């Protein structure tokens, strides 16, 4: 998906949601509510992004130029997410802002590659990712104590990991001179959940969240349990 298309989609989703909320809230009167949630999720990226050495790095032999490194392949992560949104008339929802932090779990390969003639080790087991969840738009259906949601929203994700470079008989950490290897993207996620109301303001949910675009198209997704608070 071209960058301009992703940016346009990330902007139009919240705009459509806000316009709908504005219209529906006038008709629904007080039936507009703020909701918050906390979830734990298991994530799978089909392909980690190609990390980038952001600035030149000096060793005892040479100075490595800044530039991209190879992708380390698939990666499993676990994460926690806090989120907030608006529900309108039990039919519409507008996710607002959320924050997610995730880290690598399970087996991770030791990736070795060359950068300007030097050997670089990517420590994929140290991979971490922070995601800012942007406003979006969704629909909702309620049947007695059950609730079903489907939504889409933009995201800004930053992934990073530690790496070392060979320097003679030893190795140097690429972060020890305030350098780092990381990758960032503007993407789009979908989210589908089914919830069971536990009391008038709390519900437990099971959700799946495919990454429509996150570093690359259809790049995996997540599944997990969510605790929601809201009327």
Largest sheet: 8 strands, antiparallel, barrel
Rough shape? elongated
SSE order, one letter for each helix or strand: HEEEEEEEEEEEEEE
Ranges with pLDDT <50 over ≥5 residues? Answer: none
Strand order of the largest sheet: 1-6-7-9-10-12-13-14
Average pLDDT number: 84
Helix-and-strand structural type: mainly beta
- Give the end-to-end Cα distance, rounded to a whole number of Å: 37 Å
Beta-strand residue percentage: over 45%
Q: Rg, please?
A: 21 Å
| Helical amount | 10-25%
How many alpha or pi helices? 1
User: How many strand units?
Assistant: 14
What does this structure look like?
By secondary structure, the protein is mainly beta. It has one helix and 14 strands. It is elongated. The model has no long low-confidence stretch (mean pLDDT 84).
């Amino acid at each position: 998906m071209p960058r301009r298309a992703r940016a346009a989609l990330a902007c139009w989703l919240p705009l459509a949601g806000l316009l709908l909320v504005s219209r529906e809230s006038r008709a629904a009167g007080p039936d507009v509510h703020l909701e918050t949630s906390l979830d734990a999720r298991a994530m799978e990226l089909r392909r980690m992004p190609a990390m980038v050495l952001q600035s030149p790095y000096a060793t005892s032999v040479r100075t490595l130029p800044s530039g991209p490194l190879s992708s380390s392949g698939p990666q499993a992560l676990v994460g926690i997410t806090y989120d907030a949104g608006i529900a309108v008339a039990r039919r519409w929802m507008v996710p607002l802002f959320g924050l997610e932090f995730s880290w690598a779990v399970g087996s991770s390969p030791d990736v070795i590659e060359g950068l300007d003639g030097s050997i670089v080790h990517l420590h994929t087991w140290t991979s971490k990712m922070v995601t800012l969840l942007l406003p979006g738009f969704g629909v909702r259906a309620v049947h007695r104590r059950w609730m079903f949601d489907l939504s889409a929203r933009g995201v800004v994700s930053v992934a990073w990991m530690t790496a070392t470079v060979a320097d003679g008989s030893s190795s140097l950490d690429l972060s020890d001179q305030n350098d780092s290897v990381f990758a960032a993207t503007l993407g789009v996620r979908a989210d589908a959940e089914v919830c069971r109301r536990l009391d008038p303001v709390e519900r437990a949910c099971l959700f799946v969240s495919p990454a429509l675009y996150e570093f690359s198209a259809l790049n995996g997704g997540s599944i997990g349990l969510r605790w929601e608070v809201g009327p």
